[in-house]
Amino acid sequence: MINYWNKEEIGNGRGECMKNVDLINIASKYSKDDNYDFTGYLMYKDKEIAEIKDTEFMKSLDDSLLPIIMINKKLGCFESWLQTRVIDTHRTNSRQIRRRLSVRTEVPKEIVIKARAVSITDNYWLKWDNENITYKEVRGRLSDGLNTVALYGNAIESNFTDLDISPELTNIGSFEKCWKLIDGYWYMIKKGSYKENFAEVLVSNIALELGFKAVKYEPIDNGTLVKCRDFTNSGEVDFEPMFSFVKDYWEIDDSVRIIEELGYIQDFLDITFIDALCYNIDRHTFNFGILRKDGEPIGLAPNFDNNLALSGVLNDKALEKTWYSTSFTKNNYKPILEEYNYNIPKVDFEKIQYIINDTLKDFHTLETEIGFKDIVFKMIKCNYEELL
User: Most distant CA pair in the chain: distance in Å?
Assistant: First the structure.
């Protein structure tokens, strides 16, 4: 019997012994030595607000303007902030984005540093030590030239230069998406399944009809994509996700108490009501939060990101049989609404039926799917009755 770990007995298939290999030399020869550490300043618009050295927080220069997650100024707070604004590396097309930008790393902080940590939805950015550049110049270099790559993967052509900054590296979330400039305004374009896109648009339409603060979503390309305008209006205000306060993806109890102390509980309860009404099981601490302006909190962000609402009818045919189940609403959302004595709005279900039918006009396959609109209507109606 051959001992396969004996190098004297292992050949190359031609009866020859393997030669000795200098593994260390080969590894050293081809290793990449890119330095992604950052030394300089965390900026808010054109104001230096924190000193950073080797990607570590050194000291605050203006506490009132720090991102919420950095206010405690603990060790590692800067890196924690960077990690809240990095593209999901598990998104298939994120690999194509990083390849196009020659970002070899998978480490979140290094990806964000490559983009100067610039995001469409706030005014923070990174300025290297001894660098002479303004926020207007940095913001002006933001380009949507890689939006096709972000949505679909490789593109034959892209309108993107080496001086441009891509907002895709700080475009968080698990669904394929991109930022696109339309008539001078930034729009989020998101790709999901047909039913997920329908849910996004329908919930938006219902929330706005009820007079709640919500982002308007519209279908494009025959419902294969949805779009919405940046609700910060290109950084007129800053969005801070609730994760920055609680540092937990699913922490709702502390989030509610924080929002109550801030004075925004009514708007949050309106979001909770819509989640309950439309069977949204995906409310987490990155898709709700507060708005700040020059450091001061000014309100709760509008309701957004509802493409996993109507959970009983989205992707699993077997789940369509459970549309009548209201247990999630009963066990998760109803207790919150009752604790704060939320006044359940009166809902006109003839109007709801009209909104469903009108929304379906842009989703022709679903419009003709037998029983689909009836299931959606009954789900919403049953959840409403559970709340009463």
Answer: 85
Q: Show the tokens assigned to 10.
A: 């292992």
Task: Enter the DSSP assignment of 333.
Answer: I
CA gyration radius for the chain? 25
AA identity, residue 131 = E
C-alpha–C-alpha distance, residues 246 and 238, integer Å: 18
* Residue given tokens 């709005």 in the structure block: 345
3-class state of residue 324 by DSSP: coil
* pLDDT above 90 for 22: no
| Residue 165: other Cβ atoms inside 10 A | 20
List the beta bridge partners of residue 53: 56
Tell me how far CA of residue 287 lies from CA of 46, 241, 330, in angstroms: 28, 7, 22
User: What domains can be seen in the chain, in order of their start residue?
Assistant: 40-166 (no CATH), 238-387 (1.10.1070.20)
Sign of CA dihedral 126, 76, 260, 271: positive
* pLDDT bracket for residue 313 (50, 70, 90): low
Amino acid at residue number 319:
L
- Say what the pLDDT of residue 301 is: 98
